[in-house]
Amino acid sequence: MKWKWETLRIWMRRVMPRRSGDGMDAELLKQMARGIMTTRPDEIGCDECFEQMDRFVEMKLAGADPAEAMPLVQDHLARCTSCREEFEALLAAVEAMD
Question: For the chain, how many helices (H) and strands (E)?
Fold first, then answer.
């Protein structure tokens, strides 16, 4: 299995601040392992997702299906809490402007 190092870096960034003196939380370790095992070879990272996010939001607001047109962005948003929060904030900001 090929590891997607960007995915591992993202997971570790989330897990490491939550470490306690006894080690990592068992549930977080399970989530990390699940994330690594389900990594796709064509997966995009946060930078690429962020670059495409405005188009994704525009498609959603236009009533199109951005998940169908941009499946890699959709997949990343489903996996990455940080990017999903950015997406939701951008969507809310643009909706508020209309």
Answer: 6, 0
Q: In angstroms, how far is CA 83 from the centroid of its own chain?
A: 5
As given in the structure block, the two tokens for residue 25 are 């939380």
**pLDDT digits over 5-53, tens only?**
566 666 666 655 555 555 667 777 777 777 777 667 788 989 999 999 9
Cβ 83 vs Cβ 89: under 8 Å: no
Instruction: Please answer whether residues 38 and 78 qualify as being in contact, where contact means their C-beta atoms are separated by less than 8 angstroms.
Output: no
Q: pLDDT tens-digit profile of 52-70?
A: 999 999 999 999 999 999 9
**Count of CB atoms situated within 10 Å of the CB of 89:** 10
Q: Rounded to 5 degrees, what are φ and ψ at 20?
A: -115, 180
pTM, two decimal places: 0.62
Domain ranges of the chain: 5-37, 46-97
